[in-house]
């Protein structure tokens, strides 16, 4: 069984300079209270891997504003002008990755694969310096796996075993990142007694989850 | 009718019962307004839903049910929620019948550029590279020119989204099919002459034998 901890206690477990995989798509399915706690503790020097940086003042956008991030691996920053400005000013080193390649690179990191072969990005700037591998006459880009020191994810329901279930479009990167973080911290909307979540509804088995964030009070 | 509505109404005519369709954010998302709700079409939002529905009435939003632009949506009966790996598996794996995307430039070889204006705007490719690479059919929905400059050009000066030749270009002036032998003008918008289309196009256009006036949904 896992005892839920406060967001501040979780943020204290995460050293500056860590690689953080953070779930969410435009803030939907992001661990918002954990993000607030990282900002509050003045975290610095983080590498963040995430689909996007939401908007200023929302979700991962708060980490951008607070100067928590020095390196960012992401697919889209178009709705956060602050991220773009910090990238151009050289304050954040940004690697842009096609969204489907990003999620599969994280999956590869989490499931023990040496990378993925994808046609996405061939002949574009994404191809630069990457090996192109031919399989049965078709060309593919080799995209390397991504792992994190921590996966910071959000879920709809958890139980005290750590099993997680997700809601609607708040799945996004969360179930994939749960495989690829050395330490996995999950922030659920609700924590249920063990047995309430049917086994068929569990998308992330509790064995992957190290810490649960306690409910908001 | 404004230019955007005209484009959306014309694209809607390409969408047929039984199709799985992904609409990009911005102009392409307007297309859904002109596809009847009972048409048997499933719309995918790449953040994780198949069976995207209309915007909910105020007060009935679900914070965990949004489209790829972060706006609140509904899900139709029969909808499925999926994670990002499944979502892009559908896209890259050839299970998506059509994607409708905005464009910054399309060139004489039918290649699209829509994710970066170096030094000015770097939104990131998001899902666009995977969509253009993997969808069975790629439709570019855009204004024919921007501030008097043609967006249909001999060769893209902006970074490419994919080497893939798109299937159809729909603008406020014309419908154009890119082929191996160049761009073929198949339809002109109501009240627009071939000469007017040519004057605002930066690449050679061949006239289709059955060149006709655009029909709108």
Topology, element by element:
The complex is a heterodimer of chains A (217) and B (217).
Chain A: H1 7-12, E1 19-22, H2 32-40, E2 46-49, H3 61-65, E3 69-74, H4 81-88, E4 93-96, H5 99-111, E5 116-118, E6 132-135, E7 138-143, E8 148-159, E9 164-165, H6 174-180, E10 181-192, E11 211-212
Parallel strand pairs in A: 1-2, 1-8, 2-3, 3-4, 8-10, 10-11
Antiparallel strand pairs in A: 5-7, 6-7, 8-9
Helix pairs in contact in A: 5-6
Chain B: H1 3-12, E1 20-23, E2 42-45, E3 49-53, E4 74-81, H2 84-92, E5 98-101, E6 105-107, E7 112-113, H3 128-134, E8 137-141, E9 145-146, E10 149-150, E11 152-153, E12 168-170, E13 174-179, E14 182-188, H4 194-199, E15 205-213
Parallel strand pairs in B: 1-2, 1-5, 5-8, 6-11, 8-12, 14-15
Antiparallel strand pairs in B: 2-3, 3-4, 6-7, 9-10, 12-13, 13-14
Would you write up a description of this structure?
- The complex is a heterodimer of chains A (217) and B (217).
- Chain A is 22% helix and 27% strand.
- Chain A has one domain (7-116, 145-212): Glutaconate Coenzyme A-transferase.
- Chain A has 217 residues and is an alpha/beta fold.
- Chain A contains 6 helices and 11 strands.
- In chain A, strands 1, 2, 3, 4, 8, 9, 10 and 11 form an 8-stranded mixed sheet that branches.
- The longest helix of chain A has 13 residues, at 99-111.
- The radius of gyration of chain A is 17 Å and the shape is globular.
- Chain B has 4 helices and 15 strands.
- With 217 residues, chain B is an alpha/beta fold.
- Chain B has a single domain, classed as Glutaconate Coenzyme A-transferase (3-Layer(aba) Sandwich), CATH 3.40.1080.10.
CATH architecture of chain B: 3-Layer(aba) Sandwich
As a percent range, the share of helical residues of chain A equals: 10-25%
The proportion of strand residues of chain B reads 25-35%
What is the CA-based Rg of chain A, rounded?
17 Å
Task: Return residue spans of chain A where pLDDT drops below 50 for at least 5 consecutive residues.
Answer: none
Distance between the amino and carboxyl termini of chain A: 22 Å
**Count of separate DSSP helical elements of chain B:** 4
Question: How many domains would you count in the coordinates of chain A?
Answer: 1
Question: What do we call the CATH topology of chain B?
Answer: Glutaconate Coenzyme A-transferase
What is the share of helical residues of chain B? 10-25%
Largest sheet of chain B: 10 strands, mixed
